[in-house]
């Protein structure tokens, strides 16, 4: 049996933000992302607001395995960051998922921790877990984000003097280094949120043959 601790872990966090301090919260969320990138095993992160008039903000980050995730979550840097946001950010719920499905699941569907104000006591709540989308839907979603992003990048890089003369392996290296964080931080979270109704649509039941 495979060791589940060696699988990538995706964490989704729901927070309530003081609507009068959104500018501070925006900088604060980005600062947390910047801190996490320096830790071993960091695979990417992103955050979105539930809506323009909503005080609910969602943050998503991913680490190589449980050991590297706990290295970040128990670090002094993260504790300092959390303390600096307490005047305007209140953590509501936390979810952990393993595997690539963590990018596609509905937010906060499993192993939810609830907090009240600054109370350190947490309560674990089990909620129904939606079935992960079929692999083909996940592949389509990734392609929908990657194709236009890669097309735009290839077109823009064509204007860089001498880029076409660079050896192919180096061109591919430069392109992937450029596009990987774009896909991780922006494109993939946005596309999965946009396509979520389709991703989570249950399969049609087949009618019995007469």
Automatic annotation (TrEMBL):
Pfam families: ABM (PF03992). One of its GO terms (molecular function) is monooxygenase activity. Gene3D superfamilies: 3.30.70.100. The chain crosses the membrane at residues 140-160, 172-191. Keywords: Membrane, Monooxygenase, Oxidoreductase, Transmembrane, Transmembrane helix. Residues 9-78 form the ABM domain. InterPro entries: ABM_dom (IPR007138), ABM_predict (IPR038762), Dimeric_a/b-barrel (IPR011008). This is Antibiotic biosynthesis monooxygenase. It comes from Microbacterium mcarthurae.
